[in-house]
Amino acid sequence: MADDRRDRGSGSLRLRGGIYQARYFHNGHKVEESTKTSDLGKAKRFLRNRLRTAGTPSFVGPQAERVTFADLKAGILHDYTVRKQNRSTKRLKQALVHLEGTFGLDRALAITPERVEAYIDARLEEAEPATVNRELAALRRMFHLAVKHRQLPSPPAIITMLREDNVREGFIEPPDELVAAHEPDVADAVEFAYLTLVRRENTLGLDWTWMTLKVEHGMVTGGTVRLPGSVTKNGQPLTLALQGQLLQVIRRRWAKRIPACPYVFHRNGRRIVRFDAAWDTACAAVGLPGLRFHDLRRSGARNLRRAGVAETVIMRMGGWKTRSMFERYAIVDESDLASAASAYDAFLDRATAEGRKVVSITDAKRTGTTN
Questions:
Q1: 3-class SS at 233?
Q2: Sheet harboring 19-26: ordered strands across?
Q3: By C-alpha distance, which of 131, 140, 132 is closest to 111?
Q4: Domain locations in the chain?
């Protein structure tokens, strides 16, 4: 066994089994790894490269080189399913399918900026920027978690999100009847979402155990519904008072409840999952083809704003934590802008009717009427 020892702090090489092993220190910890060569010159260059960054944040050691895409994937799935149980794992898994198709067999350090750019170009040929951004956000989160847990010294690639036109567009007015009479169960679910701003998944999964009801003579006369934070997207519980039209919806559902079924919205005891045909037909019938269930949230938020409800309360109901998230829903539509313009015109007309009062500066100074 041959050794090539150096001065203290400069590391050393040891020949073992015909392959040189490099020894050095990083942040006070001894590191020993294979140089994967029997050539002494190459082994020395390997050691010099390691020593160049040892003890610095940019050091990439054998542990980081062994991290794979599979490791990154396992990290983010753990983060979503264990640490953040309210996060949407369904959307994450959809993003991971596409990422894995490109990077699935790679080590983390091989996911370079150039390869990420190539991935973006390829995905944009078949997906919208918003979809690609969800995938990039997942990859960026995977890098962040790996750095946080000291699997990697730094992200292999700095990921910049794409510009996207993600302002919501669809609206439905209060008088519009969306779902045909032959789908009353779906109609109740739609109205509930419209009145409460609750997302589709939480609406269709609404459980009777989430409600505290006041029942008199077999009829619901009041109460509250409380969505637990474990099912809401922002992790915060949401409590809604049952009154007015919302109370009417719950009364109808109470009359149709089936003891063996925990769901408020069901078809003959089975949870409502899909109703695409009824939805598309109803939307076309009211002249709103292409309307999405999610647009009910925007429409409900606009109704609340028009009713004079404080925007902070609307944000709380809709689960929007930040102003920027709220503004993405663009709850001011063309009719609102037209109303604003009409109000401004009316103001100008009134001001004109009162007559202009124009006084020259010189006269004003002489009479002392200036402020």
A1: coil
A2: 3-5, 12-16, 19-26, 29-34
A3: 140
A4: 12-59, 69-149, 176-328
* In the chain, beta strands by DSSP E: 3-5, 12-16, 19-26, 29-34, 211-216, 219-227, 238-241, 266-267, 270-271
Over residues 259-306, the pLDDT tens digits come to: 999 999 999 999 998 888 888 888 888 788 888 888 888 888 888 888
The pLDDT tens digits for 135-150 are 999 999 999 999 999 8
* 188 neighbors 249 (Cβ within 8 angstroms): yes
Q: Is 307 strand, coil or helix?
A: coil
| pTM of this structure | 0.54
Rg (CA), the chain: 31
Model confidence pLDDT, tens digit, residues 59-68? 767 778 889 9
> Alpha-carbon distance 371 to 364, whole Å?
9
Domain spanning 176-328: which superfamily?
Answer: Intergrase catalytic core (1.10.443.10)
